[in-house]
Amino acid sequence: MWLADTWRDYEVLDCGDGEKLERWGETILLRPDPQAIWPAGSRLEATTGLNAHYHRSASGGGEWEVLTRLQDPWQISYRKLTFEVGLMGFKHTGLFPEQAVNWDWMGNQLQGKENAEVLNLFGYTGAATVACAAAGAKVVHVDASKGMTQWAKRNLSLNLPENRSVRWIVEDCLAFVKRELRRGRKYQGILMDPPSYGRGPNGQTWKLEDSIYELLQLTSQLLAEDACFFLLNSYTTGLQSSVLSDLLKLTVGQHGGKVTADELGLPVSRRPIVLPCGASGRWVP
User: Fold this and answer.
1) Averaged confidence pLDDT in the chain
2) Lesser CB count within 10 Å: N end or C end of the chain?
3) How far apart are CA 96 and CA 105, in angstroms?
4) Using an 8 Å Cβ cutoff, are 72 and 88 in contact?
5) pLDDT, tens digit, for every residue of 250-279?
6) Distance, CA of 59 to CA of 57 (rounded, Å)
7) Which tens digit of pLDDT belongs to each residue from 78-117?
8) Which residues in the chain are classed under CATH 3.40.50.150?
9) CA torsion 165→110→265→81, rounded to 10°?
10) CATH 2.60.40.1180 spans which residues of the chain?
11) Residue from 212, 233, 215, 237 nearest 280 by CA
């Protein structure tokens, strides 16, 4: 397991009974987590200082119950990076802390690669874009949501306010990849974090199991001869790390190189366990 265990502004305090108790800076949140199927160590909702609790609805979705006054959004830091987080719909905060282990890994792969170009597909609120830009890369950030792209721009401005090396593209990722292939574009690094389900800006539907192989097959053709990494993330239930490994070997692996894959995890402060948080597959030349 690749463990994101170097955070100072974030921690999983406890988890169980389908929920996780987290500290985001000085803010304490309680959110659903389907992986935490064991009993909680205590009544998590009774935690002193709990700021907000996300309740699922029996009919789908849910809502935040704000229990104490809090600043929303607020900021937290990881190493030298700063990110905006906030209470979003569907229990999210705009940041996936377990991905810190991949931010560090990409930064290491980019060392010594002056003016490397990186393609970030399904870029969301831009944490990976910021991490790669901070490592000196030129980044093309693609996401179908205009709102998430605006959030990503705010994250970049928090860290690199004078940076002009990021291109922001609001478009369906598959359509963008096809256009880049026609243009003959190449990238030294590529990462993607595709959702299980989604819709593009023009109503295009996306289902991971049906579309991921085609997307990987096409996107792998955008790798430059001097490429240094390819990263595939997945939070889709049942899509094990071994599946990501096989997908990368059959597509990106045609360039040679080495593929590894594993679960991502976050340590739990109050118990001797690790909370699993999706999986990643990595390719290096």
Assistant:
1) 95
2) N
3) 15
4) no
5) 999 999 999 999 999 999 999 999 999 999
6) 5
7) 999 999 999 998 899 999 999 999 999 999 999 999 889 9
8) 97-284
9) -40
10) 2-78+84-91
11) 233
Rounded to the nearest 5 percent, the helix, strand and coil shares of the chain are: 30, 35, 40
Grouping H, G, I as helix, E, B as strand and the rest as coil, residue 110 is: coil
Give 71's contacts (C-beta < 8 A, 6+ positions apart).
Answer: none
What is the separation, in whole angstroms, between the first and last Cα of the chain?
22
Distance CA(232)–CA(216), nearest Å, equals 9
Q: What average pLDDT does range 193-212 have in this prediction?
A: 75
Q: What angle do CA 162, 164, 166 make, to 5 degrees?
A: 125
CATH number for 97-284 (one of 2.60.40.1190, 3.30.360.10, 3.40.50.150, 2.60.120.10): it is 3.40.50.150
Q: How far apart are CA 59 and CA 49, in angstroms?
A: 29
Cα–Cα dist 234/240, whole Å: 9
Q: How far apart are CA 125 and CA 205, in angstroms?
A: 21
Least confident of 37-41, 75-79, 96-100, 152-156: 37-41
- Say how far apart CA 163 and CA 14 lie, in whole Å: 38
Q: Where are the alpha helices (DSSP H) in the chain?
A: 100-109, 127-134, 146-159, 173-183, 208-219, 241-250
CATH superfamily of 2-78+84-91: Golgi alpha-mannosidase II (2.60.40.1180)
Residues comprising the chain, all counted: 285
Look up the pTM and report it. 0.94
Look at residue 15 in the predicted model and tell me its pLDDT: 98
